[in-house]
Design goal:
The protein is an alpha+beta fold. The protein is 23% helix and 33% strand. Strands 1, 5, 6, 7, 12, 13, 14 and 15 form an 8-stranded mixed β-sheet that branches. Strands 2, 9, 10 and 11 form a 4-stranded antiparallel β-sheet that branches. A hairpin with a 4-residue loop joins strand 9 and strand 10. Helix 2 packs antiparallel against helix 8. The longest helix is centred in the N-terminal third of the chain and has 25 residues. The radius of gyration is 47 Å and the shape is elongated.
Length: 471
């Protein structure tokens, strides 16, 4: 049993030792071959040039991959000023920003009214339903068509069970008189050219601890009172004219004022902190977000009520349906700052990308090179582990080579060379000096069958063997 264990240990240990030696104590290096060919050389340098331009121009200049980045956190508040006028049945009303900015403050947005429909002095009572509601159960010709204590679908109250023949609608209990819902054909509010908006935008880049706002330190009170934003003349002014915003969004105020709409107010902070904080300023742009070609539920509108009591303690309200423009703030951006770690990572990956030039040239050589180039590229000295055939070192001026067995061969020029059978270790690495194809000449070695050793692999009788030898 012990002898069997020793044999097993030896049988396992030897392959394991050989594997360990070959795995841990050997190093393989790729064989390099210099090829002097104009087409491949030009292609190789051209691909390298393209990759180099990509790395420098796009990776480092455009994408700024040598920087680390942080994204913006933001808060926006607005202050709207201006005066509008409203004519109702020949009576002129003057509205300031408290009247046409509803609600007074929104989170990341603000609204400016451009058109209104007013229903004044409503109180709780009984009145006919508005025929413009347009839902089933509103129009009637008799009381049976108006079931009592049933709300009108999309209407303004609860049906009393009576049909009002004068209006042709069911009678309801609710806020009366009901609103006559109809969309004006023109804007009822005028004077929007006087409206200005002051935008206060505070941002922070938390990873860098940088805080900025769009009202810069060098602004004076006189500048803020007189400046108006313009993308070319004054791109950093934080005060905007309403008509300018609509025009920069490529919209018409006359059309937009009738049904309203939604405009995106873009504030972009793209800061390169390597250039200093003073260079970190916002840029503004505008774009309409809703579709002006919508057929149903077009634009932007809502209702708002103002409540009051009369002298007798009865509750009343004025209901105003607003159409207008809702401005939504979309704040974005990022800040970049030099980082040695990011620079090293992208530089290393970019240098590794240059290896694509060699890979592409290898592909071209594999498929489109000539036979001679292929033979020169792929020629190598293989190590053959065997007892009968081993390559030996080819040296000059006395060339020698190994055959299957030792014998004497007479060459064409009359010079005799002895082909020897040397004892060479199978673990040796054999090198040879390879001359280019264009500088070689072929020698033929003649040998008769009688000169071959009896144990030669070639069994030839009365024939001449032509052995090609590249020198």
């Amino acid at each position: 049993m012990q002898s069997l264990a020793r044999k097993l240990s030896k049988g396992i240990g030897r392959p394991l030792a050989r594997f360990t030696n070959s795995f841990f104590f050997q190093y393989e290096t790729p064989r390099l071959l210099t090829m002097r060919t104009r087409h491949i050389g030009i292609m190789y340098r051209f691909i390298q040039l393209l990759l180099l331009v990509y790395v420098i121009a796009y990776v480092f200049i455009v994408m700024k991959s040598y920087q680390t980045f942080d994204y913006v956190n933001s808060s926006v508040v607005t202050k709207v000023k201006g005066v509008l006028s409203y004519n109702n049945s020949g009576v002129r009303y003057i509205w300031d920003s408290t009247d046409f900015v509803v609600p007074a403050q929104e989170s990341g947005a603000f609204f400016i009214a451009t058109n209104v429909l007013m229903t004044r002095n409503q109180s709780h009572g009984i009145c006919p339903e508005d025929i413009n509601v347009g839902s089933a159960g509103i129009e009637c010709t008799n009381d049976g068509q108006c079931p009592a204590n049933q709300p009108t679908l999309y209407g303004n109250g609860i049906r009393t069970g009576r049909c009002v023949k004068q209006s042709g609608t069911c009678e309801i209990a609710g806020w009366c008189p009901t609103e006559i819902d109809s969309t004006p054909r023109t804007a009822t509010l005028t004077g929007h050219e006087s409206i200005t908006i002051l935008v206060k935008n505070h941002i922070v880049f938390p990873n860098f601890g940088v805080k900025r706002r769009n009202i810069l330190k060098h602004f004076s009170q006189e500048y803020l009172q007189s400046c108006r934003f313009h993308p070319e003349k004054d791109p950093i002014c934080p005060i905007f004219n309403l008509l300018d915003i609509v025009r920069f969004a490529n919209e018409s105020m006359e059309t937009l004022a009738i049904r309203g709409g939604i405009i995106g107010f873009h504030i972009d902070w793209h800061c390169n902190l390597d250039h200093g904080l003073e260079a970190c300023v916002p840029s503004y742009s505008f774009r309409r977000l809703d579709n002006s070609n919508d057929k149903i539920a077009k634009g932007w509108n809502f209702r708002h009520a103002y409540y009051f009591n009369d002298g007798s303690g009865v509750n009343h309200r004025d209901v105003i349906k607003y159409w207008g423009i809702r401005f939504v703030f979309l704040v974005g951006g990022q800040a970049g700052k030099f980082s040695l770690v990011d620079f090293a990572l992208h530089l290393g990956s970019s240098l590794g990308l240059l290896g694509l030039a060699s890979a592409m040239c290898e592909i071209v050589l594999s498929y489109y090179a000539s036979k001679e180039v292929q033979r020169l590229k792929m020629e190598r000295v293989d190590e053959i582990k065997g007892k009968d055939c081993r390559p030996s070192k080819l040296s000059s001026p006395s060339y020698s080579a190994d055959l299957l067995s030792g014998h004497l061969v007479s060459l064409q020029n009359g010079t005799g060379y002895r082909y020897r059978k040397d004892s060479i270790s199978t673990d040796s690495v054999h090198n040879t000096v390879v001359t280019p194809i264009s500088q070689r000449h072929l020698l033929t070695a003649h040998a008769s069958s009688k000169s071959l050793h009896s144990n030669s692999l070639h069994a030839v009788r009365n024939e001449t063997i032509i052995l090609p030898v590249w020198l």
